[in-house]
Each structure stands twice: as structure tokens, then as C-alpha cells.
Write a structure and sequence with these properties.
Helix content is 33%, strand content 29%. The chain is built from eight helices and eleven strands. Strands 5, 6, 7, 8, 9, 10 and 11 form a seven-stranded mixed sheet that branches.
Length: 242
């Protein structure tokens, strides 16, 4: 009798499209603090971890996070092994047709960074002739035309922190860093090793993508993210890492 009741419950769950108990998120292994803190290849802290955990709490669901290289995230998304992908912009990805966009959560600002004493650059075009530190696999739409015509060469590192370490060591004169990572880097280095922004490359609102699947509580997820933004909860998370 017990097995019969269990079978009926499973059938009812399948017919009604009950929400999954776990939401599957992605994280990119080249992210660094304050965006993400990894230990033993697992996301354990940082801005994105806090957003993921708070979103899951609001929905009453568990969170499972796949830590992937940047060039494998889109494939995993197309294969349906990711339900929610956060910290993303339409300018950075080629295929988001199977996903729905959340409201923008905060602004990602890419800066042109140099060692102390360098003069400000009027425009990104002033980087012509330079080798510039960048993160492997990252998209920089504003810089790409200069790269395509050979005016700028990328010197790539595995993550943002390594890019800044190489800049500090004098491997190149300029690098690209998001503002949050630069501030985090500087607060962990003495004044003599501080890096400085000499220009703004681009500013991009970032959001979450939610898989458009009838088996997911898609609209509940999107509403929860909108509420987190409107209530100031996203800003409170960001403020903890400033």
C-alpha cells in the first residue's frame, strides 16, 4: 500500500510540473574576490554566492553550483544543466534564446588600470600599440575592434587577480579590471603597491539568466530577483564587500 501511495505521488508531481527541489547555478572559475571565493573547486563566498544563497532562501529551494571554465558555461547552459546563470550581460554571450533575463542587478564597470604615476588616458584608443592584461576567455566589446586590427595585443591570465599581479610586477603597462576587483586588490596591498584607474573601458548592467523551461518556477525566480533589487537587498550585499 505504501509503495502504491508513493507511486501516485510521483505521478502527481510529474503531471502537475512540480518545481524541482534544487536550482542549478553556474559559477566561472576565473572569478575572484569580491565576486567569488572558491575553495576546493567549490563556491564558498563572495557577492555571487550571497546572491545565489539569498535567492534560494526566498524560493525555499536548495542551490547547486557548477564551477566551470568560462568557455564551457554557454555549452552547459545550452545542454540544460544550468537553471540560473548570474553576472552576465547580453554583450558578453552569443546564445541566450532559451533563457529569460532578470532585471539588471548592478553595474559592471571595466577600467583601464595602471601602476601609480601613469597619466589618465582620454579614450581606449589611446591603448594602441600596447600589450594589455586581460582575463582568458573574457569578452571586452569596447576593446575588440582595436584587437581585431592589431592595434592592441592581449596578454591573458587565468583570473582577474593574476592580471593585476602581473601589472604590479611590470609585465605590461596597462590592464583591464572590473572596478570591484581593483578595489579589493588595493585594500589588500600597501600604498606603495596600489594600482589606479586611468580610464573607463565600458560600463555594463549585469543580470541573471533563467532557463525558460515549464518544469522550472521561472516567473517566481524572476520576481524574487526583482524584489531583491527593489528592496535594496542586492545593494546591501554589494556594500558588504566594499
Amino acid at each position: 500500500m505504501r509503495s502504491f501511495v508513493l507511486a501516485l505521488l510521483l505521478c502527481w508531481s510529474a503531471l502537475t510540473g512540480a518545481a524541482p527541489a534544487t536550482l542549478k547555478f553556474s559559477a566561472v572559475d576565473s572569478w575572484t574576490m569580491p565576486l567569488a571565493d572558491f575553495h576546493d573547486s567549490q563556491l564558498k563566498g563572495g557577492i555571487l554566492n550571497d546572491i545565489i544563497q539569498r535567492l534560494s532562501q526566498r524560493l525555499g529551494l536548495d542551490a547547486s553550483v557548477q564551477v566551470l571554465p568560462r568557455n564551457r558555461v554557454e555549452l552547459a547552459a545550452r545542454q540544460g544543466s544550468i537553471d540560473v546563470r548570474c553576472y552576465v550581460s547580453p554583450a558578453w554571450i552569443s546564445d541566450h534564446q532559451r533563457f529569460l533575463w532578470s532585471v539588471p542587478l548592478f553595474l559592471h564597470r571595466d577600467l583601464i588600470v595602471a601602476r601609480r604615476g601613469e597619466a589618465p588616458l582620454p579614450t581606449p584608443e589611446a591603448l594602441s600599440g600596447e600589450q594589455v592584461g586581460t582575463v582568458l576567455g573574457y569578452s571586452y566589446p569596447r576593446l575588440q575592434p582595436l584587437i581585431d586590427r592589431g592595434a592592441v595585443r592581449r596578454d591573458e591570465a587565468r583570473n582577474q587577480d593574476l592580471v593585476l599581479q602581473k601589472l604590479l610586477a611590470g609585465r605590461y603597462q596597462y590592464a583591464i579590471s572590473n572596478e570591484q576587483a581593483l578595489n579589493w586588490f588595493n585594500r589588500n596591498h600597501p600604498d606603495s603597491d596600489q594600482l589606479t584607474a586611468v580610464g573607463i573601458l565600458e560600463e555594463t548592467p549585469v543580470a541573471c539568466l533563467v532557463r525558460d523551461d515549464p518544469d522550472l518556477p521561472t516567473q517566481r525566480i524572476l520576481r524574487a530577483l526583482q524584489q531583491m533589487k527593489a528592496s535594496g537587498e542586492i545593494e546591501a550585499i554589494l556594500a558588504r564587500y566594499r
